[in-house]
UniProtKB/TrEMBL annotation:
WD repeats: 30-65, 518-551
Organism in which the protein naturally occurs: Stercorarius parasiticus
Protein name: WDR27 protein
Pfam family, one: WD40
InterPro entries documented for this protein: Quinoprotein_ADH-like_sf, WD40/YVTN_repeat-like_dom_sf, WD40_repeat_dom_sf, WD40_rpt, WDR27
SUPFAM superfamilies cross-referenced by the UniProt entry: Quinoprotein alcohol dehydrogenase-like (SSF50998), WD40 repeat-like (SSF50978)
Source species, domain of life: Eukaryota
Keywords from the UniProt entry: WD repeat
Length: 711
């Protein structure tokens, strides 16, 4: 099958080629093949519009304008035979200038002239039938091919015909590059994203691979997408959206039921990638103010045997799904082949599908904007809602649920010497919020606060390139010892690391010498964290203890023993400009208030005078263990970000004391690191834009998230 702007091409009666004009609804029947037509493709240029059809005995190029004129004159239209007896042809593709045609026949690719019968080049390297080939328009002489041998190849000809991931030198026949076996299933489709310089290929099991074409990247894989999981995730999101918005729920309930509620005893179908094509997604935002967010994003159609999917290439998520089963007027339930127009006409695209089991072809007219809006109403409406902000909008005065113990500056005296004793406050009404913003700050106080933040935090030079060059290394121990965690101080001048040998080390950032060594844990140190003033260091270990160290001394100022924690503390840090300690233990994270006192009692020098009290525990929903946690300590922020073993991300607002957002299955594997900008909120001219993103790392890759939309 093949689709152009106003034309659809498909075999008729096996060996006839039918060109259907969607504007005039007039068919054009072209005869010239003796065997069944197995591959069809339109040319790259609209004028003249060429179409190539191939069977096992010949390959023919047709000029549609000439053919239409001959039919009007009562003559039989004839095409140009450019190849004969090449074998079973599975795919044909015109070059960008329509001068050559790549013909995939058996295990070989033939480069044929589009003007006459001449084989310009013959490429032999695949071990199974070649299923697709694409020219790269941005690079001269470049072509990429995929095959049922589960590899993709890039070829380069000295005669300047093509180049791709399996690289060939045509004059010598030398193979320069070849990919390994990607999957256990045949690769069926291929597309080159010229704008992002990427290769996208799909297999029969419903997986997409994305490879980089950027020079120096060596065609490395940048993403792997499981369409089945993305479809289930999308349907769950639509179903939840339908529960909130009644109209959306009525429109999308059928979609969710079709894909998520499989009857007992039924067969689960895979999603073979039959087609990958550009999607004109901008028409969905024709009257939207936020069209700028879609301008820098590419979208693609994925044609499968059960429906059409729209993939967002920026976050590799599903934006829309059309299931053939949901339309009673469509008799085709499983497609064997499909084609779709790249550009939308009047907001609609044409899709051509054939039945997998019957001799039947259907033409679908898809209203792209209506499809996306009915499935994403909740998301589109949420653009106008107030979004989360990492930065507190006001300076905060602390009010907690219990009176903090503060070191007294008055000499010890009997209580009877005092005329008045201040009430403990137990009769007062309980606090309803953990933090109370002070809205009555004067301008002078705000400007003074901003100046203080600027002085304490250094700005990273924006004109500098990111660090990519190895500068210096240091051996932390005499024998090989794993380093479990590492943390820079806020000003970047000190570096702390926790080791598997139960010790904590502090270095100067230039690694010239060891500043201090702390010992006392009975297990590997899992996490270390600096205080805002750089005077204290907190550490957590496998021995289920937490310790706060004075940077200038070797003894801990505070120790929390095993009786405080039922499970190992995986992460610990200071929070809210050193007002609290934040840690995660099992499926909960704890907020602790503390007071550090390093003075010694002459009668009891061994007794710890520092105190720490639990403010509250916050459980993360539906997870066994919190795998990563992140919060800002260098400025006031309510937001705490965390990830769980259930592969979800959750956002907590500690001012409200509850979870505000959950992102289920943020990665296909558990997130082991969350990173956000923790520098001063006044380190740039636009602080809010500076703190609106976070990065998550998991076994399947790294993702950048927008905290305003959580996408």
């Amino acid at each position: 099958l093949a689709c152009s702007h106003h034309h659809c091409a498909f075999p008729l009666n096996c060996n006839e080629l039918c060109i259907w004009n969607t504007a005039t609804a007039q068919p054009l029947r072209l005869s010239g093949h003796y065997y069944s037509i197995s591959a069809v493709s339109f040319g790259s240029k609209p004028n003249p519009l060429l179409v190539c059809s191939a069977s096992r005995e010949r390959v023919i190029v047709w000029d549609l304008d000439e053919c239409t004129q001959k039919v009007q004159e009562g003559l039989t239209p004839r095409g140009i035979v450019i190849g004969t007896l090449l074998g079973m042809v599975l795919h044909v593709r015109f070059s960008p200038d329509d001068q050559q045609v790549a013909v995939c026949a058996g295990n070989r690719i033939y480069m044929l002239s589009a003007k006459n019968e001449a084989i310009l080049a013959e490429l032999d390297g695949h071990l199974a039938p070649v299923t697709a080939a694409e020219f790269c328009t941005s690079e001269k002489s470049m072509l990429v091919s995929v095959s049922e041998d589960r590899t993709f190849k890039a070829r380069k000809l000295c005669l300047s015909f093509f180049f791709s991931l399996k690289v060939w030198n045509y004059s010598t026949g030398q193979l320069i590059y070849q990919s390994g076996v990607l999957t256990a299933f045949p690769l069926l489709s291929l597309l080159i994203d010229e704008e992002n310089k990427q290769i996208i290929t799909g297999c029969a099991e419903g997986q997409l691979w994305i490879f980089s074409l950027i020079s120096g990247h060596n065609y490395r894989c940048v993403a792997l997408i499981n369409l089945k999981k993305q479809q289930e995730k999308f349907c769950n999101k639509v179903w939840k959206s339908g529960k909130k918005i009644g109209s959306t729920g009525r429109n999308t309930s059928k979609l969710c039921k079709t894909n998520n509620m499989r009857p007992e005893g039924s067969v689960e179908t895979s999603l073979p990638v039959l087609l990958i094509e550009h999607c004109d997604f901008l028409i969905c935002f024709h009257n939207e103010e936020n069209i700028s967010s879609a301008l820098n994003t590419n979208y693609f159609w994925i044609g499968s045997s059960t429906g059409l999917l729209i993939i967002n290439l920026s976050n590799f998520e599903l934006e829309g799904f059309l299931s053939y089963k949901d339309y009673s007027d469509l008799s085709i339930r499983f497609a064997g082949s499909c084609a779709i127009t790249r550009k939308a006409v009047n907001g609609k695209v044409l899709c051509l599908i054939t039945s997998m089991f019957e001799d039947m072809i259907a033409v679908l007219e898809v209203n792209l904007a209506a499809l996306v809006r009915t499935q994403q109403t909740d998301f589109l409406l949420s653009r106008n809602k107030k979004s989360l902000s990492v930065i507190a909008r006001y300076r905060i005065t602390l009010n907690v649920f219990f009176p903090l113990r503060v070191k007294s500056t008055v000499k010890d005296q009997p209580l009877v010497f005092h005329n008045k004793i201040k009430s403990s406050g137990y009769t007062a009404a309980p606090q309803t919020t953990m933090f109370s913003p002070n809205n009555n700050l004067k301008k002078k106080e705000v400007s003074k606060w901003k100046t203080t933040c600027k002085q304490k935090n250094k700005e990273y030079p924006l004109e500098s390139y990111p660090p990519i060059k190895y500068e210096k290394g240091i051996s932390v121990t005499c024998k090989p010892t794993p380093i479990c965690c590492i943390q820079y101080s806020g000003d970047g001048e000190m570096l702390a690391c926790g080791l598997a040998d139960k010790s904590v080390l502090i270095f100067n950032s230039n690694l010239t010498n060891t500043y201090n060594v702390f010992a006392g844990h009975d297990g590997a140190v899992n996490s270390v964290g600096w205080s805002h003033d750089k005077k204290w260091l907190v550490s957590a270990s496998e021995d289920r203890t937490l310790r706060v160290w004075s940077v200038c001394k070797n003894e801990p100022a505070l120790i929390l023993g095993k009786e405080k924690f039922l499970k190992t503390v995986r992460f610990v840090q200071f929070y809210f400009i050193d007002a609290f300690i934040l840690l995660c233990c099992g499926s909960e994270f704890h907020l602790l208030s503390f007071n550090l006192d390093t003075t010694k009692d002459d009668l009891k020098p061994y007794k710890q005078r520092s105190v720490c009290k639990l403010v509250q525990k916050f459980p993360m929903a539906s997870t066994v263990e919190i795998t990563s946690l992140s919060a800002v300590n260098d400025f006031y922020s309510y937001i705490v970000l965390m990830a769980g073993s259930n592969r979800a991300l959750e956002v907590f607002d500690l001012n409200a004391g509850c979870s505000t957002a959950v992102i289920p299955e943020a990665h296909t594997r558990s997130v082991y690191q969350i990173c956000q900008n923790k520098g001063s909120s006044f380190s740039t001219q636009q602080p809010e834009a500076y703190n609106l993103f976070m990065t998550t790392a998991a076994g399947d890759g790294i993702k950048l998230w927008d905290l305003r939309t959580l996408r």
